[in-house]
Design a protein that fits this description.
The chain is of the alpha/beta class. The protein is about 30% helix and about 25% strand.
């Protein structure tokens, strides 16, 4: 088993319901039935894990042009500034916003990912604030909502896919973009989608 599989097994053990010894023995004696039951966690045709709701607290109003400047711990590519920052027309007020995060369980193209998501397109006026807040909560690549393990964090907007990535060697968050529809993303990457405002 790899590390991620061990983490999943540990999480399943932590969340096992209380059951009688007879029920437990029934599952022990019926491994194929148990496998079929557990396969319901990830249907064969699914490319994404079940959504996890994340509430983001915008702790302060952030000017996108000021925040998204390359500095220690943060590298901003010019394509992100031209495709997203330049289109953010207002500063998001302090408050809360909800997003859903899901991980890719197998390699998939943009079109497949987008068709599997509802409300997946972020507005440029929101996505910059979401990304800024998430990065601010994970200085130096510490653990949190964004993946910091060599996989991409993806946010879809109308013009592109925003890729937020922790470069451990350089010790910075990198924010850049790709054209929508042109990429095949590997299993393990994380996809964010917009949820209704809280």
């Amino acid at each position: 088993m790899n590390r991620q599989e061990l983490k999943l097994v540990a999480r399943i053990l932590e969340n096992l319901p209380v059951m009688s010894s007879e029920i437990m023995q029934g599952w022990i004696d019926n491994p194929k039935g148990l496998q079929k039951f557990l396969s319901g966690l990830c249907p064969e045709d699914s490319i994404l894990t079940a959504p996890e709701l994340v509430t983001i607290m915008f702790a302060e109003q952030r000017d996108p042009d000021t925040f998204f400047q390359t500095r220690p711990g943060l590298f901003i590519w010019s394509d992100f500034r031209s495709r997203v920052v330049s289109k953010a027309k207002h500063i998001v007020d302090v408050g809360t916003y909800r997003v859903e995060r899901r991980d890719l369980v197998r390699d998939a193209k943009d079109a497949d990912i987008e068709s599997a998501l509802a409300n997946h397109l972020f507005d440029e006026n929101i996505v910059y604030a979401v990304i800024a807040e998430l990065i601010s909560k994970q200085p130096q690549g510490k653990s949190g909502t964004l993946l910091n393990n060599g996989y991409a964090n993806l946010f879809y907007v109308s013009s592109c896919v925003v890729d937020v990535y922790w470069f451990a060697d350089d010790r910075w968050w990198s924010v850049y973009t790709w054209g929508r529809g042109g990429r095949r993303w590997i299993a393990g990457n994380r996809v964010f989608s917009s949820a209704t405002a809280a």
